[in-house]
Amino acid sequence: MDALKILLTGRPGVGKTTVIKRTLALLDRPRASGFYTGELRGPRGRLGFEAVTLDGRKRVLAHVDFHGRQRVSKYGVDVAGFEREIVPSIDPAAQLDADLIVVDEIGKMECFSPCFREAVRRALDSPLPLLGTIAKGRGGFFAEVRARPNVELVEVTPPNRERLPVLLAARLSQSAEERKERKGEVKS
Questions:
Q1: Per residue in 71-122, pLDDT tens?
Q2: Which terminal residue of the chain has fewer beta carbons within 10 Å of its beta carbon, N or C?
């Protein structure tokens, strides 16, 4: 049985990141690696986005004050900093102690990075479970990831977002137990 590869999708602001954080809080001492994203706000509204690894390292991913050719709307994207500081957290080859990879999110800004796209592919091909989010985008890398047979898409909606963390934590815990049992069978 393949490891769970669950990607949350839904409209912006529906609570995908919150579902991931609550799911992680419910898991029994996961050795998770990866990152989540959040907004950077100022007195006049949103200024950009920050990526935070699960071990606490932070990097501004995009900001209104960043100037460069990679842009999403009014935000310039720091691809080099993202690749250096955040991408290694989702690469299974660099996370030998992890038992779960978290990718929040597979989005337009993150996908400017070829290193990120390759790390996502390796994570999806790895025997480790993955919990992440994916933007609603339809083409390119989004379509490639959505079309993978081992990826399960779960739409987050206002009616289901409160119960999803409990359901996801239960599935991930069951998957972890099954992986432990299989490893025990192999060692015997």
A1: 999 999 999 999 999 999 999 888 778 889 999 999 999 999 999 999 999 9
A2: C
Task: List Cβ neighbours of 54 (8 Å cut-off, separation of 6 or more).
Answer: 24, 32, 33, 34, 35, 36, 89, 102
Residue 52 to residue 71: CA distance in whole angstroms:
20
Tokens 């949103």 -> residue? 46
Residue with tokens 């079309």: 147
Contacts of 183 (CB under 8 A, 6+ apart): none
CA atoms within 13 A on the CB side of 52: 12
Superfamily in which the 5-187 domain is placed by CATH = P-loop containing nucleotide triphosphate hydrolases (3.40.50.300)
Which residues touch 26 (CB under 8 Å, ≥6 apart)?
Answer: 165, 166, 169
Q: Where are the beta strands (DSSP E) in the chain?
A: 5-9, 32-42, 45-53, 58-63, 71-72, 75-77, 100-106, 130-134, 152-155
Q: Using DSSP, state whether 106 is helix, strand or coil.
A: strand
Predicted model pTM: 0.91
Q: How many other C-beta atoms can be found within 10 angstroms of the C-beta atom of residue 143?
A: 10
Three-state DSSP class for 35?
strand
